[in-house]
Amino acid sequence: MKSPERIAARTRELFAESHRNGAVNTDHIFAALLLLQWLVGILAAWIISPRAWSGLQSAPNPHVWVAIILGGAIVALPLVLVWRRPGSTLTRYVIAAAQMLDSALLIHLSGGRIETHFHVFGSLAVLAFYRDYRVLMTATGVIAVDHMLRGIFWPQSVFGIAANANWRWVEHACWVLFEDTFLVLSIRKSLQEMRTVAARRAELEFTAEVVEATVNVRTAELAASEARTRTIVDSALDAVVAMDNDSTITGWNPMAETIFGWRRDEVTGRRLWDVIVPVAMRDMHERCLQRDKATENGSVIGQRVEVPAIRRDGSEFPAELSVTRVGTDGSFSFSAFIRDITERKMLESEQRRAKEAAENAARAKSDFLANMSHEIRTPMNAVVGMTGLMLDTKLDAEQRDFVETIRSSGDALLTIINDILDFSKIDSGRMDLEAQPFDVRVCVEEALDLLAAKGGDKGLEMAYTIANDVPARIVGDVTRTRQILVNLLGNAIKFTHAGEVIVSLETTPDAEVEGKHLLHFAVRDTGIGIPADRLDRLFQSFQQVDASTTRKYGGTGLGLAISKRLSEMMGGTMWIESQVGLGSTFHFTATTVAGPPPEPPLPTPPPEALRGKRLLVVDDNATNRRILRLQAETWGMEVRTAPGGPLALEWLRAGETFDLAVLDMQMPDMDGLEVATSIRRLHDARALPLVLLTSMGKAFLKDRGTEAEAFSAFLSKPVKPSQLHAVLLRVVTGQDVNVAAREGSPRLDTGLAERSPLRILLAEDNVVNQKVAVRILERLGYRADVVASGVEAVAAVRARDYDVVLMDVMMPEMDGLQATRQICTDLPPQRRPRIVAMTANAMQGDREACLAAGMDDYISKPVRPEELQAALERSAASRTQSTATQQPSKPPTLEET
Amino acid sequence: MARRARGRAVREWRRAACRRVRTGKRQVLLVMLVVAWVSGVATGGIALYRYASVAGASGAPPSQWPQSSRLPHATDCPTLVLLAHPRCSCTRASLEALARLLSQRSQRVAAHVLLVRPSGAPAGWEHGPIERAARAMLGVTVHVDVHGDEAARFAVATSGHVLIYDPQGRLMFSGGLTPARGHGGACAGTDAAAAALDAAPNPSEDIPVFGCSLTGASPSTMEVLP
Q1: In chain A, which residues have their Cβ closer than 8 Å to the Cβ of B213?
Q2: Other Cβ atoms within 10 Å of B40 Cβ, number
Q3: CA nearest to A441, candidates A868, A862, A870, A871
Q4: Could you give the CA distance from residue B125 to residue A432 in angstroms, rounded to a whole number?
Q5: What is the DSSP string of A93-107?
Q6: Cα–Cα distance measured from residue A869 to residue A748, given in angstroms and rounded to the nearest whole number
């Protein structure tokens, strides 16, 4: 039931109950009154008319008997009903009738005294206590009937005369009704008030019910909460102690009993500090707590502090203490949480000792590795240097082969040492990655360039694809990225005997951070593949597929482990997909952000120059055909590809026309030169411009000079899109396009070494950077000795005369600046080589710092071929100027170790 | 379980039926009780009213002032005599009616209250509330009728009987002044007595007298004493 209905129902109940209680009380009042009236009637009769006389004789007056008998009869039934049915409607009606009858009797017994008539009016007023107008009607009815009957049968008793004057009893009735009217109005008012009171009581009851229910619920919740709190405190693994404002213990949980050995009843009422704090420190703790209580903040309250504590047996132990304060209504209590930290302290001590031991071990290992690498590299550099000197002398073919083998073995051993050092650095967390913007496309191309010759020697197709949405420049460590690619490409070439090695690069932009990319590199080969059960060991250090791999292919098993660690440091990961006999694909990812836009775009011919031109691609390798087709189609060309010369010739014979054709050199049925020759024999295709695509360089063309004349241009594999674009444009438009110098422009002077021979020492700690620089130098015709630190550079310069030292500034053990100063100190000016700084630092003052250290020239990293060429040209010019004062070179000496 | 439920339902029905029967019986009993009560009260009331409405012996008062009466007869105003039994409670109402009657009269009335001491009653027997009330009335002379001789002379038998004689000694009124035993108030007697005192030419009707017997003998047995 809804509240208003409940209240209304309860109001009715209360009203009925109140009414009934009133009726019951009134019944009792009338019962007493009727009894009294009966007795009064008897007394009145006895007083007024005690005896009836007849002369001298008398007898009790009949009035007395009437008073006793009739009076008793009148009150009998009402008394019985009040006794058996108090509050019932019948009871009050009978009482009303009896009261009126009693009035009539009293009037009669009093001899009709006018005063006795007031009994009627008084009775009506008391009958109004019932608050039931029907009771008044009953009483009034009795009076009316009495008057009517007496008027009929004994008028003289009412009116004094026998005649029945109707108006007289009407007059009497009107007086009664007059009083009845006011009594009824009074009853109505009283009933309204009763209803109002009942309604208010009902509302109060309802409110009280709601409040009580709410209080019960809250009390239950509070009890449950207190029980939970008590359970939490009792089950806490720390000692929980409650205190009052004077630090007197009021609560002590079971864990406190366990930790301190005191039972709750033994400590309740005692001060906390007297129980758990060592004697010598009690005053200090007390002062601290008092200060904290006064200032509301301090060293103890709200803080975790480590303090010595004592148990019951007096033994001390380290404890962690925190105290909180809770204030209510101006009074405060405190809660102390105490934890036995003995074990923790012991663990910390052990961990500290273990850490120190590990650090000492790591330091010892690093020192050992550094010393080892230095001790190994120093003589190795000497070996490699000596082999370089020997190669400069006249050697027969066998001797040259022996020396080349010694040099390459020395290079391989140095590579292994560098790998071990790299791995150690990564393992000990001392490897830092750079975050500089670089061109990722150039990075991929440089990696391919480094290994293109090896791939070409095995007849492998090498190519790369980069998705269009890959940012042109990204921020990261170009050296390490290239290192990973070189490692993977090296493995791919090593384990592939036929087919292709393709590098692909895609990106997934980060949905939340603008400019952030997840680069996905993949190196796919068609090599021997890896068994599925051996894949998991590939990334483990010093692990290869199996022992036979080591015997057959060599390697230390560190390369992949290092590459994986590097990719993880770049925010990515590395994984493999492989099938035995079909090949493998090595994937690695790196998280990066897009770098600043590249340098202002170079002027290029409008894209419409190639748009609509028909290109014929002839290459037996499907990947190459796809790469060339996709690239050319982005320039708006219409491309048809043929897997070999016969099909292409067939199209041409059929009358298909093309604007130019790209022919791969190495094809099984007809090589590129043969296809070109056949095309030139076709009448309609004589003038078709031809471009030769080769991975063998141009040296072999010397033997097939007339066939080579059929071509308008040559492209080396792997094909760079910019070079392809430039060549196609040149062929189609006859216009020479300025391709960016950073992409290895064919403008390098390959005869520089012949014109200006220089003995070059390269000091660079990073293996890949070493290879890049060596490669550039080889393209310029130079050969360089390589060292990996400033110490080795100083030793090499002392041991042999060099014309140029390409000095990396940031090197371990001794940086380039320090090595330069050492060289300047050790060597007289006439023996001192020209030192060219190579540094990635682009800060203001770096060049000045290099020059101030004694360096003669400065090129920035990444090293650009044209910049290196220019630096070497300057070095050569400088050497020429100082030739007159230059002392003859001394015989090389080995530095004693 | 179904059987037990059925049994329980049957028992409940039986209990309800018994309650209904008991309630019905109680209600019948109650009705009968009320009816009996009403009947008893009505019977008692009727008996009371019958007693109250029964008049005493009317007597045969002489139409002329008896010469033998020792009471003085006024010759210049009406003479009123009320004969009262000194112990009759109903006579109080008659005395009150007489007092009202006399107070309403402007002319002089020679009023006498004759307290009748029955034969055998000791001296002083007439003392009492009636005598005191009579003696307290203004303009009323109280006499004691020893042995009831005067009552016999006037041939009045009932207490509260009022006789009014004009100055010439003619009986103008004979009867009571109350409408019922012990009841005061206006009635035919007071009206007739008032008319008689005003020397109304018509003789009064037969007015009943409500009171005790004065001497215990009937009027016919009373001798008219000289």
Answers
A1: 53-55
A2: 17
A3: A862
A4: 151
A5: HHHHHHHHHHHHHHH
A6: 7
Please give chain B's pLDDT, 226 residues, in tens: 788 888 998 899 888 888 888 888 888 988 999 999 999 998 888 888 788 778 888 888 888 999 888 888 989 999 999 999 998 888 888 998 999 889 888 888 999 999 998 888 888 888 888 999 899 888 899 999 888 888 888 999 899 999 999 899 989 899 999 888 877 777 888 888 888 888 765 555 678 898 888 877 544 433 333 3
Q: What 3-state DSSP class applies to A615?
A: strand
Q: pLDDT digit string (tens) for A238-288?
A: 999 998 888 889 999 999 999 999 999 999 999 888 888 888 888 887 787
**CA dist B38 → A137, A200, A864, B29 (Å):** 17, 43, 139, 14
Residues of A in contact with B128 (CB under 8 A): none
In 3-state terms chain A splits into helix, strand, coil percentages (rounded to 5) of 55, 15, 25
DSSP secondary structure letters along A552-611: HH---S-HHHHHHHHHHHTT--EEEEEETTTEEEEEEEEEEEE-SPPSSPPP---GGGTT
Question: How far is the alpha carbon of B54 from chain A, nearest alpha carbon, in Å?
Answer: 11
A137: tokens are 């009607």
Amino acid at the residue A161: I
How far does the CA of residue A225 sit from the closest CA of chain B (Å)?
45
**Percent helix, strand, coil in chain B (nearest 5)?**
40, 15, 40
Per the prediction, chain A carries an average pLDDT of 83
Instruction: List the beta bridge partners of residue B82.
Output: B113, B162
Residues of A in contact with B148 (CB under 8 A): 55
- DSSP conformation letters of A663-708: EES--SSS-HHHHHHHHHHSSTTTT--EEEEESSTTGGGGGGHHHH
User: Which pTM does this prediction carry?
Assistant: 0.45
The answer to whether A157 contacts B183, with C-beta atoms less than 8 Å apart, is: yes
Q: Is A249 exposed, middle or buried (0-12, 13-18, 19+ CB in 10 A)?
A: buried
Q: Which two tokens stand for residue A567?
A: 């990719």
Tell me which chain A residue has its CA closest to the CA of residue B39: A73
List CB contacts (< 8 A) between A112 and chain B: 93, 180, 182-185
- For B193, the enclosing helix (H) or strand (E) is helix B188-197
Contact B187 A160 (CB under 8 A): yes
Q: Give dist(CA B173, CA B166) in Å, integer.
A: 9
* Rounded CA separation B12/B10 (Å): 5
A660 contacts A691 by C-beta, under 8 angstroms = yes
Q: Does B48 touch chain A (CB under 8 A)?
A: yes
Q: Which residue among B44, B190, B212 places its CB closest to the CB of A53?
A: B212
User: Which residues from A are below 8 Å from B176, CB to CB?
Assistant: none
**A485 three-class SS:** helix
Give exposure, A89-119, as e/b (b: 16+ Cβ within 10 Å).
eebbbbbbbbbbbbbbbbbbbbbbbeebbeb
Give the pLDDT confidence score for residue A283 in this predicted structure.
84
Residue A541 is predicted with a pLDDT of 58
d(Cα B83, Cα B143) in Å, to the nearest integer?
9
Q: What span, in angstroms and rounded, lies between the C-alpha atoms of A101 and A259?
A: 93
| Token code pair at residue A770 | 């070493």
Cα A423 to Cα A427: distance, rounded to the nearest angstrom: 6
Question: Is B35 touching A (CB cutoff 8 A)?
Answer: no
Comparing A224-233, A664-673, A742-751, B91-100, the range with the smallest average pLDDT is A742-751
Q: Percentage of chain A with pLDDT > 70?
A: 85
Give ipTM to 2 decimals. 0.82
Q: What integer pLDDT is reported at residue A195 of this predicted model?
A: 93
The pLDDT, as a whole number, for residue A374 is 59
Contacts of B12 (CB under 8 A, 6+ apart): none
Whether residue A798 contacts residue A819, with contact meaning beta carbons closer than 8 Å, is answered with no
